[in-house]
Specification:
12 strands, TIM Barrel, 13 helices, binds NADP nicotinamide-adenine-dinucleotide phosphate
Length: about 325
């Protein structure tokens, strides 16, 4: 396993990170034994970066991850998040404090290494009682807003670093990114949509993440890639396996699971001409981008962790394969 600097945080994170989130679902619905085996095997293979959130199983992921990491007693980087619902909009500071305190209790830790804002960032305010879906740049950046509340928690030592999720309206995301208030961004990056780094032609119908990755790096931020397997779509089978059993976390703004599934056959040249396994190719593609510090993957099984670690040893994709991908991204796989 190789390790990379997480921006200017001083943290060194493994290229492969372990996402204890909704898609793979292992830390929400798996057995305690499978969770322990998975974390143990990941750590044996050199993974030192784990990511969770209160939202994942309403605290179950944090609790289960905390239990296994404390049982293994390993020195790893742990990140969690905070979600804001409309009822919290009048008191970001109170909400943030309560949320991180509850997360730390569930995780059994005194602090997390990174605390992320989980909500999408959009210009339009959500209606009251409309869930946690999005917050506006103004809600994040105004005095007394979310960034101030996260700073406070960091100043109080409950989180070492703060970050946000780079999804929503691209221009709203960039406004938050370019404010310089955050140290880390979680950004979508996959074979099906590399626009977090690569400039798409204006005619491309793909959701345009407007190079949020490169722009974050230009500001010395750490970049953590998410959706590297496009939520399992690039795992080589349309059917969910293991404890997954749900497709509920496909709600990244501008992306659609059915549409992504329909794009996969266009990648078949990677296996037929190049002899590559698609899931291997997805991981190698993400980590050949040196702007990414760590790629978080959801794992349903120990075998998937081993396969991902094996993929890393095979190096970047060939230039000839990348050359064939560019027109697919430009045309939106049509
Ligand atoms: N900040 C945010 O808002 C946000 C959003 C999304 C994700 N995340 C983070 O990123 C993590 C990853 O989630 P994701 O949504 O991005 O999912 P993902 O990693 O793109 O997809 C995970 C799925 O890929 C398949 N897979 C993983 N390794 C494989 C392998 N070696 N071979 C074949 N298939 C493999 C599994 O599918 P099956 O289960 O079907 O086998 C697994 O459930 C989350 O746990 C979370 O920590 C954060």
């Amino acid at each position: 396993m190789n390790y990379r600097q997480l921006g200017s945080t001083g943290l060194r994170v493994s290229e492969l990170g372990f996402g204890a989130g909704i898609v793979a679902g292992l830390f929400m619905r798996g057995t305690a034994e499978d969770q322990l085996r998975a974390a143990q095997r990941a750590i044996e293979l050199g993974v030192n970066h784990f990511d969770t959130a209160p939202l994942y199983g309403e605290g179950a992921s944090e609790e289960n991850l905390g239990r296994v990491l404390n049982a293994i007693s390993s020195n790893v980087v742990v990140a969690t998040k905070v979600e804001y619902y409309s009822e919290h909009f009048a008191d970001f500071q109170g909400r943030t404090r309560k949320s991180i305190e509850a997360s730390l209790r569930r995780l059994g830790r005194d602090y997390v290494d990174v605390l992320y804002l989980h909500n999408h960032i959009r210009f339009q305010e959500i209606e009251p009682n409309d869930g946690y879906e999005s917050v506006t740049p103004n809600q994040v950046l105004r005095p007394g807003g979310i960034a101030d509340a996260l700073d406070r928690v960091r100043d109080d030592g409950l989180a070492r670093h703060i970050g946000f999720t780079g999804t929503g309206d691209p221009a709203a995301v960039l406004e938050v990114l370019e404010s310089g208030r955050f140290e880390v961004v979680q950004a979508y990056y996959s074979l099906l949509n590399p626009s977090g780094r690569i400039e798409l032609p204006p005619s491309s119908p793909l959701h345009n993440f407007q190079q949020v990755i490169s722009r974050g790096v230009a500001q010395d931020m750490g970049v953590v890639a998410i959706r590297v397997m496009s939520g399992g779509v690039l795992g080589g089978t349309a059917a969910r396996q293991g404890p997954a059993g749900t497709t509920s976390s496909e709600a990244i703004h501008g992306l659609d699971r059915q549409q992504e599934l329909s794009q996969v056959p266009a990648l078949s040249f990677l296996s037929s001409d190049g002899g590559l396994d698609l899931s291997d190719a997805a991981i190698r593609f993400a980590l050949s981008n040196s702007e990414i510090s760590s790629a978080l993957l959801g794992f349903s099984t120990v075998e998937q962790i081993e396969a991902a670690a094996g993929a890393l040893t095979k190096g970047p994709l060939r230039e000839s394969d990348l050359d064939r991908l560019a027109p697919l991204w430009a045309s939106g796989f049509r």
